[in-house]
TrEMBL record:
It comes from the Bacteria. SMART domains: LON (SM00464). The lineage of its organism: Bacteria, Bacillati, Actinomycetota, Actinomycetes, Mycobacteriales. InterPro entries: Lon_prtase_N, Lon_prtase_N_sf, PUA-like_sf. This is ATP-dependent protease. Pfam families: LON_substr_bdg (PF02190). One of its GO terms (molecular function) is peptidase activity. The keyword Translocase does not apply.
Amino acid sequence: MVIDREPVEMAMFPLESVLLPGEDLPLRIFEPRYTALVRDCLDRPEPRFGVVLISRGREVGGADARCDVAAVARIDEYVDAGAGRYVLGCRMGERIQVVEWLPDDPYPRARVRAWPDEPGPPVTAAQFRDIEDRVLTLFERIAAVRDVELPERDVLLNYPDEATDDIGKLLYALATRVPMGPADKYAVLSAASPADRLVALLEAVDSVAAMIEFQLSE
């Protein structure tokens, strides 16, 4: 599921949420334009489309404004429910940049190019362990409020095998476990390098922790 650095045309699925590389994406398709998108994707050897955050507007009906950083979704399984309805099981892959939006005919389309991690300062093992500890501290605070017991660290984090040797992918995987809002998640997705992603994730964790403490103080 590799996109070239040269722009290529791709079907796009705008959502009111952000999906990071490595996440699973279940979808229920019923709107006619996205039924057409799915049918076209399934006719190709590699059924995939881009998932992009809506910056203004709604998912249903069109007339939305869209961000310019996205990720590729691969359709791993599907059920044709009839009457133009599909149930999809997708897996998010590489990050992409939108070069140009094309007319929504018959569904959203764009010219996109791959956006792999850019060079930057290295993220050390100590730095990654620190952000892990902060995330786990956040989980412990939430668990204490809900009076539940957390599983062991390795079970709770449970990184995918493909991420274990890639710090950029590990940061994505860790970010998917944090209950952050779309703006913070988009900042993680848009971070140019792993070092930038670490900073964005730290800010997101601090934001979520502050929100939890504020809610508890009311």
